[in-house]
Amino acid sequence: MADTRAPVERPISPFWIYRWPLPMAMSIAHRITGGALYVGTLLVAWWLLAAAAGPNAYATVAAFLGSFFGRLILFGYTWALMHHMLGGIRHLVWDLGYGFSAKEREWLSLATVIGSASLTLILWGLGYLVKGGPH
């Protein structure tokens, strides 16, 4: 006799029931931060060119980077740099053949998120301590 099962009702879109695993989200974030670092490097180049061009050009860049919007961009650049660096270390651990169990993958991904946020806050906190606050 033929197997006659009732058709299974399937959702229209998997995004309603599918939860992104943290390692997948971190992989996407790693790619995005890599792209952001390309753009942020233009700021570093602008700063270096302005320093070489003289005091007026440097004052313009310093005024922009010292503004609220400039500091926000620099904060985001710092976080992207820390996140991308820790993501690279996570990939290095995987290249060495470690961290492939589900629990280890989740732990490494969570360490990347917490570590990048913590390192960013520590670096900015130390910067404000050394500089003496925003000027």
Which features does this protein show?
mainly alpha, 76% helix, 3 helical TM bundles of succinate and fumarate reductases, 135 residues
Descriptive report:
It is a single chain. The protein is mostly helical. It has a single domain, classed as Fumarate reductase/succinate dehydrogenase, transmembrane subunit (3 helical TM bundles of succinate and fumarate reductases), CATH 1.20.1300. It has 4 helices and no strands. It has helices at 22-53, 55-66, 68-95, 102-131. Helix 1 packs antiparallel against helix 2 (55-66) and helix 3 (68-95) runs antiparallel to helix 4. 10% of the residues are buried. The mean pLDDT is 90.
